[in-house]
Every structure is written in C-alpha cells, then in structure tokens.
C-alpha cells in the first residue's frame, strides 16, 4: 500500500505568492481611475505616501472594489454594512496556492478552464474566492452559504458581471449541522473545496481580536476604540464565530469530508492559528486522509496557513486529473 503523505508546515514566505498581482505598494492613481469613489479616502500617511485608513470600513470596501475592478475586471462589487470585507491580496494567495496544489497531480501544469470545479464553503456576501478563481484560472465555481441575505448580495455581484453567470453558481445551505451535505449532489465532483472558517469561539473573542487589530493600526485605546473595532472590521455572527472556534469548525469539516472522499480531489481550509495544527493533523490521520499539506502564507505582518487534505493517494489524483482535466488543463 502506498505510504500516506503528510507534509509539514514551511516557514511563512516574506512576500505574496509569485503569481499574485498585488506585489509591492498599491498604485492609488490606477485604483482611483478604476473606482473614482475611492479618491476621497486616499491621503498621505506618516511617510508621505498615499494610503487609506485601514480601520475605516468604507475605505477598505472601496479599496477592494477598486482592486477587483483594476486587476480582475469585476464591476459593481459591494457588500452590505456589517459583513466581512476580505483582504483581496491574501485571498488571491489562497487561490494561487490551491492552483499549485492541483498542479501537483499533473506534473506541475497549472489546471485551467471550466473543467476545474471549485466549491466555496461559506462564500459570504463578498463571493471573493469564486471571483478570483474564475478571473485567474477560468474555473467553474459553486459558492454555498447558510445566510440568504449574503447569497442575495453575491447574486447582485453576478448580475453586475453577466459573463460570470454561467461559471459561478450559488447554493443555499439549509442545514446548520452540515458543510458539504445538502450542497454536494449525488454523482457530482469537485476538484477542490475552499473555506474561510469562523476563527472565534464567541462574539467576545471576536471583539477582542478586532481590538488587537485596532491597536496594531495605532488607534487610540479609549472608550470609543474599545467599543467600535468590531464594527470597523465587520463580520456577521456566522462569519466570525463557531462553538470551539476554527479548530472545532475545521475538525467538523474533516469528519464530514469522509462522506465525500470520492467526490472531491482536495479539501482545503484557511487556518489562522498554527496552534490548531497538531490537533487537526491528528484528526486527518484518524479520518484516513491519504495526503495532507500545510502551505504557509503571509501578507504584511499577517501570517496564516492553508490546510489541505485528500483521500486519494498520488496515483489516484493523477488518475482523477487524467479523467477530468485533460482537455482544459494548460499552463506551466
């Protein structure tokens, strides 16, 4: 029987993925051209360079809108107040990292085109992973979420970009106790699943995390600062919190993934805390995963990692790629 492969975490890279479009400083002139509404929020920072107030939800949202328009051709991107506003460069790193993961099944060739199917668990109002995956690699995507208002906003983004309508599908998760169940249909296959899990065990933990961000941005630690950071950084209850935090959420995902072991080539999740890795890697071994990977990622001062696992060995993954990707795979 082939040996199982469980790669250890590597030191976090000093910069973004080499294929990430967001290297270096933002070109605010180009971003304002792509999104004129950003202009009032761009001011000189302490070093005399153009920047925005990253504690301002409106400024960060408009920066995202500008980045998606400038680099990916996405028009009319928006999210309702109070919903999670993702960092585009970091989310792009996730997509490029899973492209590398899939490329390992076919001698390093990057899989491109609609034959590649991605499932985003908890796609949210922002729909960012399907948008980036389709823009960068032409993949066919399904975004699933339990929150109907979030899906309604995601649908509005698709309506503003008609070319995406045939390549991105939205599905409502009606089961609070499931992640894949009720979403993955009988006989359906996905090449990779992605997830940005709720990191916190409670709303109080989420508020404490937001306060740490607030302080890191140099904001005053006064009554106003202590009360409002969560509102600044955004996130609905289901986006931020899960009993037991991200360790419990990803452990539940691992347990449920065994039921779909032959319908998905790779399962993946973002992981905020390295402290959760040992328990989750133990859970993967107990679940019978044949392969697992931990990919370190970095954006500025922020360090995170991508946890990936598969119930197919290397030969099984190569057979999967030969069966499903041959006509549409290309690249180097």
Automatic annotation (TrEMBL):
Coiled coil: none annotated. Its EC number is 2.1.1.181. It is an enzyme of class 2 (transferase). GO terms for cellular component: cytoplasm. GO terms for biological process: rRNA base methylation. It catalyses: adenosine(1618) in 23S rRNA + S-adenosyl-L-methionine = N(6)-methyladenosine(1618) in 23S rRNA + S-adenosyl-L-homocysteine + H(+). Residues 1-20 are annotated as: Disordered. Keywords: Cytoplasm, Methyltransferase, rRNA processing, S-adenosyl-L-methionine, Transferase. It is found in: Cytoplasm. HAMAP family: 23SrRNA_methyltr_F. Belongs to the methyltransferase superfamily. METTL16/RlmF family. Specifically methylates the adenine in position 1618 of 23S rRNA. This is Ribosomal RNA large subunit methyltransferase F. It comes from Aquitalea magnusonii. The lineage of its organism: Bacteria, Pseudomonadati, Pseudomonadota, Betaproteobacteria, Neisseriales. The gene is rlmF.
């Amino acid at each position: 029987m082939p040996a199982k492969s469980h790669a250890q975490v590597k030191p976090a890279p000093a910069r973004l993925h080499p294929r990430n479009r967001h290297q270096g400083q933002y070109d605010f002139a180009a971003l304002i051209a792509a999104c004129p509404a950003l202009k009032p929020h761009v001011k000189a920072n302490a070093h005399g360079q153009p920047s925005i107030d990253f504690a301002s939800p409106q400024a960060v949202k408009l920066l995202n809108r500008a980045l998606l328009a400038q680099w990916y051709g996405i028009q009319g991107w928006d999210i309702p107040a109070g919903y999670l506003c993702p960092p585009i460069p970091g989310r792009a790193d996730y997509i490029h990292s899973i492209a590398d993961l899939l490329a390992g099944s076919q001698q390093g060739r990057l899989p491109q085109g609609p034959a590649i199917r991605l499932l985003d668990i908890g796609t949210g109002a922002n729909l960012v992973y399907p948008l980036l995956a389709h823009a960068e690699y032409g993949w066919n995507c399904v975004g699933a979420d339990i929150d109907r208002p979030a899906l309604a906003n995601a649908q509005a983004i698709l309506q503003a970009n008609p070319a995406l309508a045939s390549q991105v599908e939205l599905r409502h998760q009606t089961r609070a106790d499931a992640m894949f169940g009720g979403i993955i249909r009988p006989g359906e296959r996905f090449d990779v699943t992605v997830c940005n899990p709720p990191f916190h065990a409670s709303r109080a933990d989420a508020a404490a995390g937001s306060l740490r961000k607030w302080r890191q941005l140099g904001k005053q630690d006064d009554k106003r600062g202590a009360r409002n950071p969560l509102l600044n950084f955004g996130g609905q209850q289901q986006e931020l919190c899960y009993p037991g935090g991200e360790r419990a959420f990803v452990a539940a995902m691992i347990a449920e993934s065994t039921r779909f072991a032959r319908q998905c080539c790779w399962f993946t999740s973002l992981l905020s805390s390295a402290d959760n890795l040992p328990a989750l890697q133990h859970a993967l071994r107990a679940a019978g995963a044949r392969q697992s990977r931990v990919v370190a990622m970095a954006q500025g001062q922020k360090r995170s990692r991508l946890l990936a696992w598969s119930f197919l060995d290397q030969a099984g993954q190569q057979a999967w790629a030969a069966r499903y990707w041959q006509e549409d795979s290309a690249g180097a």
